[in-house]
């Protein structure tokens, strides 16, 4: 009887470890559900919106300008941030705030991206902490799940003028 109970316990632990590993790989490499908080991505993503983040793009270097990404915060590695990619390595970006009279520009260094929130007046982004290493990108947001009346693919940046083409 004890042998039977131990056998069932070890089988249960084995299945738990196996399914735990499968779940970890799915969330690490395929994607997952993310709750976004804060005003920095308004009006595209509101506080407490639920989105789906796919992680394959970062592994295959398929991140493009205009994508909204989940990134490990350069200021606090324990937290993630949600921002839009404004520039990739080698791109010229505007590094000043919209209210600045004199505009300053810089180039994104190799292996980095330039991130900004859609709500430029209320966003801590690359204008504060500089270019972000590509390795800090956790995933790309491709779908808004909640609220249901806003379900679907995300809209284009309201700050499209910040994308420089030269």
- Helix-strand topology string: HEEHEEEEEHEE
State the helical fraction: 10-25%
**Oligomer designation:** single chain
Major beta-sheet overview: 7 strands, antiparallel
Task: Identify the CATH homologous superfamily.
Answer: Umud Fragment, subunit A
Strand order of the largest sheet: 1-2-9-3-4-7-8
Beta strands, count: 9
Determine the strand fraction and express it as a percent band: 25-35%
Distance from N terminus to C terminus (CA atoms, Å) equals: 76 Å
The secondary-structure class comes to alpha+beta
Shape: elongated
Give the CATH level 1 class: Mainly Beta
Q: Please tell me the CATH architecture by its name.
A: Ribbon
Unreliably modeled segments: none
| CATH structural fold name | Umud Fragment, subunit A
The gyration radius over C-alpha positions equals 20 Å
GO molecular function, one term: serine-type endopeptidase activity
Enzyme class: hydrolase
InterPro entries: LexA/Signal_pep-like_sf (IPR036286), Mito_IMP1_subunit (IPR052064), Pept_S26A_signal_pept_1 (IPR000223), Peptidase_S26 (IPR019533)
Active site: 40, 83
Can you give a write-up of this model?
The chain is of the alpha+beta class and 166 residues long. The protein has a single domain (32-163), classed as Umud Fragment, subunit A. 22% of the residues lie in helices and 28% in strands. Strands 1-2-9-3-4-7-8 form a seven-stranded antiparallel beta sheet. Strand 3 (68-72) and strand 4 (80-87) form a beta hairpin. The longest helix is centred in the N-terminal third of the chain and has 29 residues, at 2-30. The active site is at residues 40, 83. One of its GO terms (biological process) is protein processing involved in protein targeting to mitochondrion. Residues 16-97, 103-146 form the Peptidase S26 domain. It comes from Calcarius ornatus.
